[in-house]
Amino acid sequence: MEKYLQAFSSAFMGTVNWTGKSIVFEVPWYSNYFWGLIIISLIVWGLEILFPWRKEQSIFRKDFWLDGFYMFFNFFLFAIAISGFYKVIGLLFNDLGIDKSSLTLFNLSELPNWGQLLVFFLVLDFVQWFTHVLLHTYPVLWKFHQIHHSVKEMGFAAHLRYHWMENIFYKPLKTFGVMILGGFEPEQAFMVHFFAITIGHLNHANIKITWGPLKYLLNNPVMHLYHHAYELPKGKNGVNYGISLSLWDYIFKTNYIPEDSGRLQLGFEGDDKIPKSFFKQITYGLSKLKP
């Protein structure tokens, strides 16, 4: 038990120290996600201001500050809080004889750097797409995902407005994806993470981008807006589940873009019951987990 407590404490304090060093620029730029998130956010927000898709939408749109707080809560504060638990789980798996290479299907170390990065990106993006489908399919998961879909006006910060329980679902499956790849991230993995943040911000931004012919590969604001549409095609739990890539939606026939005016109601039936305050939102849905 002592080693588990030590592992928890070490991981927790390590994450706290790393975040502190990131704030004061004492970590390499490519691993400084604190300032990376801020810079990407300011750039995309600037594009929203200069080239607004829905011109009547305010620069400080509805729930702008709430979503801004969610960005830092989900990306840093919750990451600090949960880091110790993930370390303990990893240690427990090792004690059970399940190591990082147990499920390895690809040995990335044998690929060139660009190949490592590409496979890493594709596998993780597919795992996230699949997890996203699950969030819309099962009621107990959808209850948490409703927080993200309670956004009524889209903007870059809506990207990271989501219930902290989603981290609990995404993280193990992303770890599973990394285990498939031999249990490690390529040296250039920071490029994938910064790219994902940028695409995610753009997908939620008040900007009209389709990427032209690349729309069948890359997710985009026009496509993702319909993911947040109040009215969905009959019989569908959701559409356009893509995270960074739209590719999976076109492959599995979950794509849906009937028009591109940007004039549609967002949310879902019953979204008026979603609490308005942050603290009530982060406890929303937990009662559904009680036996």
Explain how this protein is built.
- The protein is mainly α.
- The protein contains ten helices and no strands.
- The longest helix is centred in the N-terminal third of the chain and has 32 residues.
- It is globular, with a radius of gyration of 19 Å.
Indicate the topology:
Blueprint (H helix, E strand, L loop, with lengths): L1 H22 L9 H18 L13 H32 L17 H25 L1 H11 L15 H16 L8 H16 L16 H7 L19 H5 L26 H4 L10
Keywords, please?
single chain, 291 residues, mainly alpha
Biggest sheet: strands, sense, closure?
Answer: none
Gap from first CA to last CA: 28 Å
Mean pLDDT: 89
Structural class: mainly alpha
The radius of gyration over CA amounts to 19 Å
Give the uncertain stretches in residue-range form. Answer: none
Helix content: 40-55%
Name the quaternary structure.
Answer: single chain
Q: Work out the helix count.
A: 10
Strand content: under 5%
Q: Based on CA inertia axes, which overall geometry fits?
A: globular
